[in-house]
Design goal:
75 residues, alpha+beta, Double Stranded RNA Binding Domain, 2 helices, 3 strands, globular
Length: 75
């Protein structure tokens, strides 16, 4: 039985498309729209778990990923 886990998707505009990154696994994908990039990243993560060894999953999985906002004074 598969378990449901939550992962972060950071999506950035790059040239004419979007790049999506999962920082917990260092897995990335891309797409022409935000939705496509997110969907492609989800597929890439699912494929990673299907094909990676337990050792690779353990070595790549980062559980302490924090996303926050900062206020910086810029001259």
């Amino acid at each position: 039985m598969k378990s449901i886990q939550n992962f972060t998707a950071i999506i950035e505009k790059e040239n004419d498309g979007f790049v999506a990154l999962c920082p917990e696994l260092d897995v990335a994908s891309q797409g022409n729209t935000v939705e496509e990039a997110k969907s492609n990243l989800q597929e890439a993560i699912e494929l990673f778990f299907e094909h990676a060894s337990k050792e690779e999953i353990t070595s790549r999985l980062k559980t302490d990923v924090f996303i926050t906002n900062m206020q910086i004074a810029v001259a």
